[in-house]
Amino acid sequence: MGQFSISDLEQLSGIKAHTIRMWEQRYNLLRPVRTATNIRTYSDNDLRRLLNVTTLCGQGQRISQVARLTDAEISQAVLANSDNAHDYHSQVNALLAAMLGFDERQLNKLFNDAARRLGFEQMMLSIAYPLLQRIGLMWLAGTVDMAQEHMLAHLLRQKILAATDSLPGIPATARRWVLFLPANELHELALLFMNYLLRARGHHTLYLGQNLPTEGLSEVGQVYQPDAVVAVLISQPERSRVAEFAHDVQALFPGAQLVLYGPLARQEGLVLPENCVAPVLMTDFLALITENNFAPVAS
């Protein structure tokens, strides 16, 4: 079970701490416990309830009414009232609450409803990515369960694969991209979504997946001859070896654009090869692949 401070709840829910305290005192909304030093801490159940209550209040319901509902009634009300396609904050809150409750059915429905209303790509950019950023904050605070994160990641992975599989075929004359994760890197969601974005825009991709040592790329350049190579660096390689990794990949693909994505590629003072770019956001990557020099070649 997580142990959250009131500042954690404020950051994760978007509700000010003084409002949380008022709801707690007036409506008995949350049930914190006190530490030996008399500091209030909140559980996963408290955070989940707050996120769901915040979602309903954001949809116009009054806190005095919502506070009377049971957790099950609140959860059902969230599903029944998730019709505003552009209320991204409420949808992220509802998804985070479902993840904390290991409610795979609700997660699936919320993602599917959002994709139906917004389209798959916009759902990923406006809802899934902000959700993953919130979970990242929880990781830093040590307040997210690994099983919760794995459940969510597995569900998103399935959805990205299904959306990619449904795309039309790519002509042989299209721009060619190699996508891979370096040795011991297992965080695949960003790379999978990049693969989808490229294919959706008519680019050809060779997706090589997780945990690929650089030497495993030795024949790819000669046989596939890509126009660009993408690697996502979340936890690998070691920070001190990122520049060396970039130059090693450049040597294997001397004529290709190298794209490195992830926090390790954005270290202060990092010197990358001339033909290497490190987009900060997924929208920056989108801008890159729609530039004229990366537009797909007409068949």
UniProtKB/TrEMBL annotation:
Entry coiled-coil feature ranges: none
SMART domains, sorted: HTH_MERR
Keyword annotations of the record: DNA-binding, Repressor, Transcription, Transcription regulation
CDD domains: HTH_MlrA-CarA
Domain of life: Bacteria
InterPro entries: Cbl-bd_cap, Cobalamin-bd_sf, DNA-bd_dom_put_sf, MerR-type_HTH_dom, MerR_fam, Meth_synthase_dom
Pfam families: B12-binding_2, MerR_1
Positions of the HTH merR-type domain: 1-72
SUPFAM superfamilies in alphabetical order: Cobalamin (vitamin B12)-binding domain, Putative DNA-binding domain
PANTHER family: MERR-FAMILY TRANSCRIPTIONAL REGULATOR, REDOX-CYCLING DRUG-SENSING TRANSCRIPTIONAL ACTIVATOR SOXR
Name of this chain's protein: MerR family transcriptional regulator
Originating species: Hymenobacter frigidus
